[in-house]
Every structure is written in structure tokens, then in C-alpha cells.
Amino acid sequence: MVWLKNIEITDKTAKADFSPENTGVWGHLEVELSTQKVISIEHVPGYEMFYPGHTKQKLIEIAQTGDTATECLVMWY
User: Fold this and answer.
1) Which pTM does this prediction carry?
2) What are 3-62's pLDDT values in tens digits?
3) Which class for 59: exposed (0-12), middle (13-18), buried (19 or more C-beta within 10 A)?
């Protein structure tokens, strides 16, 4: 699971801080919505593999649905 906070969606980008597995350590990710490419990322050491991808996908989903939440929890199995 990954927590997202400080979610900001504009017409061009989506960004948020993310914390994997209740570590209390925060990274940051920004994605360009037109290309769905990550344009900036600050990784959480030791959690570089899955968490940025889940963060990116959730930000794109939030932007597409018009959700205005500024925090959310992403879970998968």
C-alpha cells in the first residue's frame, strides 16, 4: 500500500507526495497527463520498484475522474 497526500491536479500535470507501507518517509512524484510520463520523482530509499508506478497510475485515475481528494490510500494485492 502507499499513502498519497498533497495531491495536486492541473490540466497538464498531477503530483503528490507518497509514503510506502506506513514508513513515514515521503517521496514525491509528478506526471505529465498528456503523455502519462513521469516528469519528476524523489524516491523513497528501498521502495523504488512498485510504489512509484502505483502512485503514477492513481494520479492519472484521479485526474481522469475529476476526484478532488487531497489524500488517499492505494492498496493492491
Assistant:
1) 0.95
2) 999 999 999 999 999 999 989 999 999 999 999 999 999 999 999 999 999 999 999 999
3) buried
Instruction: Return the HEC string of the chain.
Output: CEEEEEEEECCCEEEEEEEECCCCCCEEEEEECCCCEEEEEECCCCCCCCHHHHHHHHHHHHHHHCCCCCEEEECCC
Q: How far apart are CA 54 and CA 44, in angstroms?
A: 14
**What is the span of the domain harbouring residue 54?**
2-74
How many domains would you assign to the chain? 1
